[in-house]
Amino acid sequence: MGAPAAAGAGQGQGEGKEYPGRLTLYVFLTCAVAATGGLIVGYDIGISGGVTSMDAFLQEFFPSVYREERTARGGGGGQYCKFDSQLLTAFTSSLYLAALVASFFVASVARSLGRRWSMFGGGVSFLAGAALNAAARDVAMLIVGRILLGVGVGFAGLSIPIYLSEMAPHRLRGTLNIGLQLMITVGIFSANLVNYGAARIRGGWGWRLSLGLAAVPAGIITTGSLFLPDTPSSLISRGYHEQARRVLRRIRGTDDVEDEYGDLVAASEAPGAVRRPWLDILRRRYRPQLAMAVLVPFFQQLTGINAIMFYAPVLFKTIGLGGDASLMSAVITGLVNIAATFVSIATVDRLGRRKLFFQGGCQMLLCQIIIGTLIGVEFGASGDGTIPKAFAAAVVALICVYVAGFAWSWGPLGILVPSEIFPLEIRPAAQGVSVAVSMLCTFAVAQAFLPMLCRMRFGLFYFFGGWVLAMTLFVAAFLPETKGVPIEKMGVVWRTHWFWRRFVADEDGRAGNRDVEMDYRKAEGIAVR
């Protein structure tokens, strides 16, 4: 591949148009409040695996799994198969199927009522699900509660990333958007701490505390969303122009917002011709964004991270750590997750998205290969036996390195990139596609992980490693750099990309973006035509 093509792939840093204004305390606080919606997603990821490793929970709802765990003879699979139960995985994965369905309806809500009311609806649904799960008497109640939680996750997963990208100054869009991923990691860590404490409660009701405390993060985003302003882009698209101008002045900290306001209005004019966004997104001019809306969340889930975070306590138990030790190991990985996310916050708007994607992918690939090899050496294909403490410690350490690589690459960027690349006219619908793909893949991975662990044994880690290699190569070839480009001018990154420009050059070459395109080409080292 020649130099122009490589540059066109976005290896340099993207520079866009400058608007007056600064990072104000107001925009920081609004983004921080909105990002707390990530707590509900993270808390659920962390709580599910811990609860399903608690003996009292298994005895009450999944007695066959409890007996199998006691004997560790899951159909001849030894240690690999002792947690294999479709009913047990249905408890975990039903949430994500519900979120998938909800995502198709949330786009219409976000488009017609605004982003903040979508966040509010998600919080209310999550509150109801938390109450039902805490009071569950049978598996049916558990799964209905999980479905309500899933609706909440679907609402939050669509509206919050868009809200953050639309509110943030373009040069700090990555930093503020990754606040959502930070809150997800805090939610995971908090859930791991709760699980560790709840598992030590005598009387067998600790699991109810773990599930019921999901109401705390739900209450935070539900209450917080009532005090948030809607984004200028959303207000303009719904006809509230003066209110949009007032919000823009406040979040930029200056009265000189006419340039940015004018660009937002120009970007909003296209929706008048877009009557059916779910069909219009299939048009050729939106092919690059649609490809990223599908492939980025698809690849993110196939890193294997959710499999590890869902079932970290179960996985650590499988490799020979005791119940308390496995939960504490999950707490350790949660802490690593938080710390590594700060690395992404500090570097994403300096190094750019592509460099973090590439470095994190290489790190995760190496860890997956070594983890699979270590477990394979000790358990072999049969899964019989126990793992020495030194090996168990090495596996935990490698999982921490793997989690760190994910936490500063595919974790935050898998949310950030889809939320910043869509034009306003299709943004809610396109984000709905992204969330639906993410939830579908999460559902599939959650449903399949334990059966795959039982059947593929240590080869499961090689399976995920192969996908990490594929996604790293995909980013290197096809993902343009979006750092520093205003969200309403994002079309330039596709028109200057070696592959995607063939889809958008004819339809999206508006003269109003020519100045941004010239700046971007100079920064990327692409020949100016």
TrEMBL record:
<keyword id="KW-0813">Transport</keyword>
<dbReference type="Pfam" id="PF00083">
    <property type="entry name" value="Sugar_tr"/>
</dbReference>
<feature type="transmembrane region" description="Helical">
    <location>
        <begin position="459"/>
        <end position="479"/>
    </location>
</feature>
<feature type="transmembrane region" description="Helical">
    <location>
        <begin position="326"/>
        <end position="348"/>
    </location>
</feature>
<dbReference type="InterPro" id="IPR005829">
    <property type="entry name" value="Sugar_transporter_CS"/>
</dbReference>
<protein>
    <submittedName>
        <fullName>Sugar carrier protein C-like</fullName>
    </submittedName>
</protein>
<feature type="domain" description="Major facilitator superfamily (MFS) profile">
    <location>
        <begin position="30"/>
        <end position="483"/>
    </location>
</feature>
<feature type="transmembrane region" description="Helical">
    <location>
        <begin position="23"/>
        <end position="43"/>
    </location>
</feature>
<dbReference type="InterPro" id="IPR020846">
    <property type="entry name" value="MFS_dom"/>
</dbReference>
<dbReference type="InterPro" id="IPR005828">
    <property type="entry name" value="MFS_sugar_transport-like"/>
</dbReference>
<feature type="transmembrane region" description="Helical">
    <location>
        <begin position="429"/>
        <end position="453"/>
    </location>
</feature>
<dbReference type="InterPro" id="IPR036259">
    <property type="entry name" value="MFS_trans_sf"/>
</dbReference>
<dbReference type="InterPro" id="IPR003663">
    <property type="entry name" value="Sugar/inositol_transpt"/>
</dbReference>
<keyword id="KW-0762">Sugar transport</keyword>
<feature type="transmembrane region" description="Helical">
    <location>
        <begin position="176"/>
        <end position="199"/>
    </location>
</feature>
<feature type="transmembrane region" description="Helical">
    <location>
        <begin position="391"/>
        <end position="417"/>
    </location>
</feature>
<dbReference type="GO" id="GO:0015293">
    <property type="term" value="F:symporter activity"/>
</dbReference>
<feature type="transmembrane region" description="Helical">
    <location>
        <begin position="205"/>
        <end position="228"/>
    </location>
</feature>
<keyword id="KW-0472">Membrane</keyword>
<feature type="transmembrane region" description="Helical">
    <location>
        <begin position="290"/>
        <end position="314"/>
    </location>
</feature>
<feature type="transmembrane region" description="Helical">
    <location>
        <begin position="87"/>
        <end position="110"/>
    </location>
</feature>
<feature type="transmembrane region" description="Helical">
    <location>
        <begin position="360"/>
        <end position="379"/>
    </location>
</feature>
<dbReference type="GO" id="GO:0016020">
    <property type="term" value="C:membrane"/>
</dbReference>
<dbReference type="InterPro" id="IPR045262">
    <property type="entry name" value="STP/PLT_plant"/>
</dbReference>
<keyword id="KW-0812">Transmembrane</keyword>
<dbReference type="GO" id="GO:0015145">
    <property type="term" value="F:monosaccharide transmembrane transporter activity"/>
</dbReference>
<keyword id="KW-0769">Symport</keyword>
<dbReference type="InterPro" id="IPR044778">
    <property type="entry name" value="MFS_STP/MST-like_plant"/>
</dbReference>
<comment type="similarity">
    <text>Belongs to the major facilitator superfamily. Sugar transporter (TC 2.A.1.1) family.</text>
</comment>
<keyword id="KW-1133">Transmembrane helix</keyword>
<feature type="transmembrane region" description="Helical">
    <location>
        <begin position="142"/>
        <end position="164"/>
    </location>
</feature>
